[in-house]
Design goal:
heterodimer; A: 130 residues; alpha/beta; 5-stranded parallel β-sheet; 45% helix; B: 805 residues; alpha+beta; 5-stranded antiparallel β-sheet; 18 helices; 15% strand; elongated
Amino acid sequence: MSGPREGQPPVVLVADDDADIRALVAFRLERAGYRVVTASDGEQALELVRAESPDLAVLDVMMPRLSGLEVTKRLRQQPETSRLPVILLTARVQEADVALGLEAGAHEYIKKPFSPQELGRRVQSILDRR
Amino acid sequence: MLGASALLALVLGAGFAVILNELEQLRTVSRFEQTAAEVIAAADRLEDLAVGLHGRATRFAISPNERLLRSIGDTRRELKRQGKELRLLTADPEQRTRAASIEQALRRYDQLSVTRLVSASRADPAGARSLVRARESERRLAGLRDQLSRFRSEEAQLAAERDATAAVQARRARLTGQVALVGSLLLILAFTAYFSRAIFRPIRRVAIAARRLATGELSARVAPRGWATEVGELGRAFNTMAASLETNRRELERQNDELGEKTAELERAVAELAEEKRRVSLSYEFGELLAAEMNTAVISPKVLAELCRLARAETGALYAISVNRAAPPSLVSTFGIEPERLPPVLDPPEALAARALAERRSIVASFGEGFTARALGRDAPVRHELHLPLIASDREVGLIVLTRALEQPFAADEIETIEHLAGQTAIRISNGVTYKRARALADVHQAVLNATRDGIRLVDLEGRTLTANAAIERLTSDVFGLPSDSTLFERSAIAERLVDPESYLATMATIAADPECTTQDVFELASSGRSFERYTAPVRDSADALIGRIIVVREITAERESERLKDEFLAGVSHELRTPLTSICGYLELVLEEESGTLTDEQRHFLSVVERSTQRLLRLVGDLLFVAQADAGALTLERTDVDLTQLVRQCVEAAGPQASAKNIGLSLETRPIPVTNADPARLAQLLDNLVSNALKFTPAGGQVLVRAFRENGRAVLEVEDSGLGIAAEEQERLFERFFRTRAASEAAIQGTGLGLSIAQAIAEGHGGEIGVTSAEGVGTTFRVELPLTGHGEASEIEPPRELAR
């Protein structure tokens, strides 16, 4: 995984099976100056990571085919993606779910519903730290 | 007695001594007399010799010749010897002096007269003749002869004196002897008399008494006479001996009597024993007969027949009473009579039978000759009837009726024996019934166990099966594939086929280490995914002794599946509800932030209503999910060290704006509470619910006071408001889900009716409780008590302070 590309905005992958939420997050992040690529399921998300080499991934936990948790685990297993920052979005609010997500290697765990502005701030703070 | 003997001996001795002394003196006197005669004879001879010598010397002086001279020499020697002899013979001292002087005079005569004459006659014969003529020698001789004469007369006088003395002495001795003799005789007589009185007679009396004693006359005694002597001692000793003999004989006679009595007693006992033995052997034989019937409650005709034989009864009938005594006694068995001829049940019981049962004792009835019982008699007339109630464990179990045609009635000892045997029969019947009931009960138990879906097995302390139901047998052999006769510990082999063998083996180790432990675990077969819950617990008998362990195995595959489905459903609902809400909230935020253009005031107002409703909807969804989770037992607490005072303060501060908006005074009062182990997020949720409730139900200008303190080792949180209050009848239902008070509905106060039910779930989840006190129009106080499970220090003391107004 490469660092932020010179002169180019950071690339953020947004994966959610709900098109409205995908659009909402993409709108908010593009407004914040990021390039956003979107996927509607886990497998597509993994393909896009390979294709686009994003700087950060925002993944919904409950997605068809591959869950966000599973995607995170696989990313951590690949050397080139093992350090890709991941923010998990979930409607599941059980503490056990949060623990699972952090165990899988997510940096942040944001419960739905969330404030788009807040999400933007989290993304920015992670990318700024890199 | 000894003294008397000694006295007698002394007196006799003294008498004899006196007599002996007198005799000795007499003997001395007589010796003196004899000596005196000899002395006088010797003096005579001496005089003769001296005269002879003078003659011969005179003759020699006149006519010397040799022959004469020789004769003179012989005479001189003889004279000398005789002179000496006289001296030696003389006993009296005076006489001896005289004899000595005579001897001396003789010597002088011999020398001066005789020797001179002889010498002169040899040398001067003439001179010799003159000498003779001078007559000197003659004078000398005459002097000598005078001397001798005096000596003789003295001697004779001495002898005479002694003789007189001797006569006196002899007389005295005779007298003394006579006196001593008479005295001795008298003494002997006296002694004999005394001896007879003091010894012989008492001894004779003793001897006579001894002879009487020897003939068996034990009352013989010696009269107490002369008791002071040794013989008296003998008498006393004899009397003591006789008395002792008599006492002994009396004792012996008494013992003899006793022995006789005992012998008789023993004989009676032997007879009784023989009777007892007869009864015991009867009873034993009868018991053996009964024992053969162990497995049936019915006493066979054989037993009844034996009883009839022993009782010498021609007929007999046995009626049994059912266990619950609902039915009257019914005929079980007969002897000597066809059953058809007897009533099958005693309903109502025949008079005698009823009495026997009611009074619980045998009843004997005798009838006059010729009486024939219609029911019990065959052809023979019945003369006697015996009704025996059968009682076992204080319960009537039946009745036996025996009849006898014999003349003799049932004797008391016969009845006793029969009663004893009947008692055994009763016990056997009772045991048979008890056994049947126990069997029936055991069958019921086994049926219940087999009808139970859970697998149940009871094992002993070594793990061997005591009881197992069909379900566990099925599980063990069909599902687990284990031999059904294996022990609990051998069945641990199943572990290798489980998803989590370690936890299964750990449970088995716990059971093996502690027979008293109770365990509960879940295991899942790796191959099929079937899950089982296993519960084991120690089992004690009625005496509280450990007898083994019960194992209950329940398949929970379906439950687990439904639980999983429920979880999935909850997650799904949550997801399905939140996803659209996420869109609504998100886009609303974009619009309100004017990311898509400027809003008019009116638009902003409308959208803010949408946002508020969305938030309410969101809270409702959250509350619903929480309640659903709590219902499913899935309420998990993220426990950590919590400073309750701090947590309460934060909640109160967060509610400050809401209170201010409603112009309600919100204040906090805390006292130190030690840090405790709890879920801070859940407790904050609880407190938020209570505080927001208080604010909702308190009219503007009211007061809400939050307190946090420690009491009786528990943390107490109180939220007190000065609100509407809750009607007493509604307080009970306050924590029910979706329950809303009438006041809340009427005042159109927002709420789902879930807040308090969530608060209760959280409090109880922490092992605490929640309660309410309220008065309508005055206010309401919710009180939460939580156990303190931490170990930290109390937080700072916080004085009451007003947070908002």
